[in-house]
Amino acid sequence: MNYFMELNDKNIDREIDAHCKRLCDDMILFWNKRCQQIGNQVIAEVEDQPKCFNAQDGSSSFSIWQKTEPEQVKMTCDFIGPSQYYAEKQDITQSDILIYNIRTRVLGGHMVWPSMQISTNLHGEQTKKSINTGRASCFKDRIDYTLWALKTWYSPSNSNLNEETKAFKEILDGNSLWLHSFGESDDGYRGFIDFFVLNDFVTEETYIPYDLSSFRDSKYSATITGLIKKSTEYVPQGKDAFQTLIDGCQYAIGKREDTLMNLMKS
Prior knowledge:
Largest sheet: 4 strands, antiparallel
Strand order of the largest sheet: 1-2-3-4
Distance between the termini: 18 Å
Strand content: 5-15%
């Protein structure tokens, strides 16, 4: 299922993540299927139907609710492909953006995160961010660096944290119960990767995230080895460099989509 085509059938550029019921329906099926396949009693299943919120402007948004105790966890879908906003900033044409939206707005191109807003200090201001909005601010929506930040959260090092990294750690700290349902320390990080079938984004043995901007000749030439000091540097500069990031995202998402479709059939 291509959610971009379904929601934009009249050539209207509409948000996908929280506004596509079919995406939420499929993510619910995926989540509960993974719970059954893995047999982890700590990871709670989710409600069979998403909840709908109707805004005053007539738009509808959908959320997924995990059946945890004592309170349910509200989750929302998130696109893990390249940011359209930064693609436009790097002069990627609208036709090329349309192509990668069609290729990546599939189940394999999406995640779910808890939507709880956590207080943190970012860019000198006290603010509230979810994991989704936090990774957008801190890592410019790059899923490879988000996974590295998760890896270091599960297995913390003694390295100094810059402002963005510290803020994102605080956001993850506020979601620690949810994150620890996948396990503790490095096992928790690996459990997270395995549950969400993000294995095509990381190395096979060490689970280190590939640098998606290093994609050439159908493979990645580098892995993520640390976080960047300035958040602006997460955006590859120039059309060709950003297109390489797009290609790297498309490749991993395409492989993940194939795996998900096989898992859903089993």
